[in-house]
Design brief:
It is a single chain. The protein is α+β, with helices and mostly antiparallel strands. The protein has one domain: predicted glycosyltransferase like domains (Thrombin, subunit H, Beta Barrel). The chain has a six-stranded antiparallel beta barrel with strand order 1-2-3-6-5-4. A hairpin with a 3-residue loop joins β2 and β3. The longest helix has 23 residues.
């Protein structure tokens, strides 16, 4: 009886620690505030087929090796997979990246902010590994607080 009670208490404490770690600890990835004007060409979109092949002007608000926060002129579906060609207007840097849209909110300018979580994809050309390896050297941004 006491052993069962102690096991239950220990189990609940470990679950609480896992929940705390998952929801309340900050992500350790380097994150940079940016105001880079970028050109995004949508190569593939699982939920937005009408945008296929479109090139849009966007603003990279925040960037990290694992995610992007972009301001785009139209709403993109949450949960959709995007394959994009990301080109920085002030340099010749261009990356082919794949990501999932995790969230979308309207901005005060009438555009939309989207959170794009980047990931590797083996069936198409991807610069994700290069993006992660060269991230700090390539970008001259301010570190996010």
């Amino acid at each position: 009886m006491i052993t069962t009670l102690l096991t239950t208490i220990t189990y609940r404490q470990s679950n609480m620690l896992l929940l705390n770690k998952r929801f309340f600890e900050k992500n350790k990835a380097n994150s940079y505030i940016s105001n880079n004007n970028i050109e995004v060409k949508i190569l593939f979109s699982s939920e937005n087929p009408s945008f296929l092949g479109k090139t849009i002007d966007a603003t990279a608000i925040e960037m990290s090796p694992k995610a992007l926060r972009l301001e785009v002129p139209f709403p993109l579906e949450i949960g959709s997979v995007l394959d994009i060609a990301l080109k920085f207007k002030d340099s010749n840097l261009c990356y082919n990246l794949t990501g999932n849209i995790r969230w979308r909110v309207p901005s005060i300018t009438g555009h939309y902010h989207i959170g794009l979580v980047l990931r590797e994809r083996s069936d198409i050309k991807s610069d994700y590994k290069t993006w992660k390896i060269n991230f700090i050297q390539n970008f001259n941004n301010r570190r996010a607080c």
